[in-house]
Amino acid sequence: MQNKYAAEDKNYSPAENMNLYKELPGSRAIVIVDSDLNILYCNSLFTDIFHLNVNDSLHRLNPTSEFLFLVKGFLAKNFRNLTFDITVNSDYDNGSNPYKVDIERIFVKGEQFFLINIDTQKNRKEIEWKIDSLHTALDLGNVPIIIAGDKGSIVFATHSVEDILDKSIEELFYLNIKELFKEFITDDYESFVRAVDARTGWKKIICMNRSGKEEYWDIHLHPFTATDNRYSGFIISAHDLTEIVYQKQIIEQSERKQKLIINNISDLLLITRKENNDFILDNANDNFYKLFELNKSVILNQKLKDIIPKDLYDKIKQSISAIENGPLEIYEFGYKCRKDRHYNCKVTYTDLGSRENKIFIVTLKDVTEEKKYREQLEISYLKEVQLNKMKSSFLANISHEIRTPFNGILGYSEILNDCLEAKDYVAVKEITEQMKDVLGRVLELFTNIVDLSQIEAGEVEIEYVILNCNQIIKHVYDKKYKEAEKKGLEFRLGLSDNEAMIEVDWVKLEKIIELLVDNAIKYTHKGYVYLGSQIEGNNIKIIIEDSGIGMNPEDIERLLSPFSQEVEGYTRPYEGLGLGLTIAHKLTKLMNGNFEINSEKNKGTQIVLTFNYKDYGME
């Protein structure tokens, strides 16, 4: 009921204005009477049952009426309210029907009234049917529901609650929800108690062990208040999340395994997808992030072109285009990153349900060591070929270089016999000198071979002394002067004004200079040979220069190898094994010197040996 004037008129009289109350929809018969049983208000259902209206009196009912008797009895007592069942004969219900009557004594502004609610059995059966239907629906739906009163005592529970909590309905009824859930909510029980006390919502996923199996339930606490504010309580619902949790655990475990597998792949792995003509980073392994110094949490699902180097992105994009537009399923390319690492890259794809929905998988295999090994293998192969060639050349040259002088000695010995028989002692002396010269060249040949073998074996001992290299230069100059003069060459000497002090092995430096001067004289037919020294800053330079046949610049490196000459074979115009330049170069390096050759074909050669300047006070 609702009175639209009561809130506005302070002189409002309840008894006089009951007719102003507006009837609200309802299924109960309602009547308000005063102490004299005069009807001040009634709804239409009351009128239909008892044929009475406003301003009528309940005294008009049959004096023997059970209803009238009980109402009068209530008025005579001081009861606050009374509930009783009666049977009423009425054409409204086509006969005699039971009713439930609630009488409540009310006071409005000091006036006493009586509110009578009359409910039919039909209404009560409908309500009971609705409650039973709801209860049945909850049970059939296997929805665990607990309803508790304002103080937390349980007044209702579905059968599924019994199974979950392993408690009977009898054990649950009137048990306080705080006490009930204390044994099930172990890690957050205090927050549950605070929520009940404060009448606030609460939810939690709890783990319960039933029959040796862990189950996960999502528990929700919902405080509620009835629409008339006369009743409040709590509804606790539970949802079984066990399968969802197990599925999530399986998925997470699978993802962890996948991540572990991906991250344990030594190759770099990149997974990308195409969106609106852009390539998006879908995933990658740790090795990929580490190489390109990327932060995984920041760059996931970002455009690939904004993340990786442009040259790599262009190659990946080109590869994917080739796969999409052609018959290829795998595309390979090489890539060199900024850290000087070489990678063999493969691009492939997999369909996710449709050909349009695909992801592209890019693997980058580090082939740096493999490439270096292959290059070293190629170098070793070329070196082996060169060594075989050198071996063949050496055998050919050594056989020639040994056979030629020994043939000469054999010839000289026959001539020597003839001279002795003829007592031509002058000729004997000349032939003896020539034989000594031949034997000296043979001895020098074997000495060079032995020296080279010691150098190659690392058995050379360097005895360092600080000396003035001009002394050695002058000594070699004097020693080779006649040989150069004999060939008609101008042998020039140019020594530095100051002492050129260096720290070297005296014997080995002299051998180096002699070998280089020998070559200069040997390969120069006209012009000059120069031997000298220069002081440039902290460096001492020993220079051997000639105007001879020179060398092709591209042959210089090869001629530094042992047993190498510019012209090979028996038809070569010059004798020797090609060891002089090699030995001089290697000994210079062993004494921490620099060996530099500047040469041009048919114009001459300049060799510069550079050593650090030393003085007597230096250790």
TrEMBL record:
It catalyses: ATP + protein L-histidine = ADP + protein N-phospho-L-histidine. It is an enzyme of class 2 (transferase). CDD domains: HisKA. Its EC number is 2.7.13.3. GO terms for cellular component: plasma membrane. InterPro entries: HATPase_C_sf, HATPase_dom, His_kinase_dom, HisK_dim/P_dom, HisK_dim/P_sf, PAS, PAS-like_dom_sf, Sig_transdc_His_kin-like_C. GO terms for molecular function: histidine phosphotransfer kinase activity; phosphorelay sensor kinase activity. Residues 397-615 form the Histidine kinase domain. Keywords: Kinase, Phosphoprotein, Transferase. Transmembrane segments: none annotated. PANTHER family: OSMOSENSING HISTIDINE PROTEIN KINASE SLN1, TWO-COMPONENT HISTIDINE PROTEIN KINASE. This is histidine kinase. The lineage of its organism: Bacteria, Pseudomonadati, Ignavibacteriota, Ignavibacteria, Ignavibacteriales.
